[in-house]
Specification:
The protein has about 425 residues and is an alpha+beta fold. Helix content is about 35%, strand content about 25%. The protein is built from twelve helices and 17 strands. Strands 1, 2, 3, 5, 6, 7, 14, 15 and 16 form a nine-stranded mixed beta sheet that branches.
Length: about 425
């Protein structure tokens, strides 16, 4: 396969301007974004992305999970497409780059190809995957999971947010239910590349421009419900209390101990916590929280899950509380395609960017797509490793380096036609 010359680079200013323009859609309260999936802001961001892609000569298809596929044709009608993309949805207090860099970086690949008159044998499809974050409708990477056959569409449509609104109903409400069968194209993919910010501190600390992602950590989300009894904080004697909040606190301490026992390559914490009735003078009668365990070793994840259930049951039995567990998300550790990883590494070397192998600590749509097509990821640093926070920040140079490597890996894999 012909590789583009090292003098070919993306338009860094145009990419940055696009990132800043998209950041105006669904602004947060502290400089970031609140563009949660299937909200009006999500719909607005999708329309802007569609506009830009169509201006770049791409045609749009949308499947029944709302996944957007924007296609630049190749010269061979029988050649399978090379996919590139990520997600446009954000956390409630999200940054301007998480996911968005990968989608708009893919758009910039096509724009640069247009500028340079580059033709490829394989079509290129820039993709926006629906509900990667999973913050409104658990689990994360929901639509790419349905696409890859991990979840059923009916199950996904039935996912509810904290207000009881269902995924399927909200997708229809914002007008992004497509007519393409979800997953119909999963056997017709040549490869996929996803550019993403690291969301961790390693690349910045090591002074590297590019992370060549070889593996992804496995993930386990377990929702824990602890039930006690609501009662008055002032008039209920200590021996007679059934404090679900205290039970939760002791379980969270257990989670920390479990994760530390597998240091340094395992982590664990509770990210989503609801306490009921959440009143100043009422002892909590119920606590619902989600434990997030991660490790690159599936045996470690299984051990952490088992110890959580045994330990939490023991804590609640001793306190006179009831406890229930529900697995609400997860995936096994991922090894990305060696050929695609090599294309990323070769691109970084050809362009003169410093790079190192890295294991992704976060889940990404690429983790599910890797099950059905050769896939790899490219990471760029982010300041202090901070993400899922409105203060999330990257430099223009980091964005450029990541998109340059993406451009070269995608165009090489799609095969330049002279």
């Amino acid at each position: 396969m012909a590789a583009p010359g090292e003098n070919l680079r993306i338009n860094a200013e145009r990419l940055w301007d696009s990132l800043m323009e998209m950041a105006k859609v669904g602004p947060g309260v502290a400089g970031g974004n609140n563009r949660q999936t299937l909200t009006d802001a999500d719909a607005e961001g999708r329309k802007l992305f569609q506009k830009w892609c169509e201006e770049a000569g791409m045609s749009m298809a949308v499947d029944t999970m709302g996944n957007m596929f924007m296609t630049r044709p190749g010269t061979d009608p029988d050649a399978l497409p090379v996919y590139v993309g990520s997600h446009l949805d954000t956390q409630p207090t999200g940054g301007k780059y998480d996911g968005v860099l990968g989608v708009l970086g893919g758009l910039e690949v096509v724009r640069t190809m247009n500028d340079l008159g580059i033709k490829t044998k394989h079509p290129i499809v820039v993709t926006n995957w629906t509900n990667e974050e999973g913050t409104r409708f658990a689990p994360a990477m929901l639509a790419s999971g349905v696409f890859a056959g991990v979840h059923t569409q009916d199950w996904a449509y039935d996912r509810s947010d904290h207000e009881g609104l269902k995924f399927g109903d909200e997708l229809k409400r914002i007008g992004w239910v497509g007519d393409e069968e979800v997953g119909a194209r999963k056997t017709k993919m040549h490869a996929m590349f996803e550019l993403h910010i690291e969301q961790g501190p390693i690349l910045e600390a090591e002074g590297k421009d590019i992370g060549v992602v070889t593996h992804g950590q496995g993930l386990s989300w377990t929702q824990v419900t602890v039930t006690g009894k609501d009662s008055h904080t002032g008039s209920t004697p200590m021996p007679l209390r059934k404090n679900a909040g205290l039970g939760m606190a002791r379980i969270l301490q257990l989670v920390d101990e479990i994760a530390w026992s597998h240091a340094p390559h395992a982590v664990g914490a509770a990210g989503h916590i609801d306490v009921f009735p959440n009143s100043r003078n009422v002892i909590p009668g119920k606590a619902v929280f989600t434990i997030d365990f991660r490790s690159p070793d599936i045996a470690v994840i299984k051990d952490m899950e088992d110890r959580l259930k045994i330990g939490a049951k023991k804590i609640c039995d001793e306190m006179g509380l009831d406890v229930e567990f529900e697995k609400v998300g997860g995936f096994d550790p991922v090894e990305f395609d060696k050929g695609c990883v090599k294309a990323v590494r070769s691109a970084a070397e050809r362009l003169g960017y410093s790079h190192q192998n890295i294991i992704s600590g976060a889940g990404h749509d690429a983790c599910w797509i890797n099950k059905v097509a050769p896939t790899a990821m490219i990471m760029c640093p982010c300041v202090d490793g901070l993400s899922h926070n409105e203060a999330e920040e990257i430099s223009r140079d980091w964005a450029k380096a990541g998109a340059d490597v993406l451009f070269h890996a995608v165009v090489e894999t799609a095969e330049i036609v002279e």
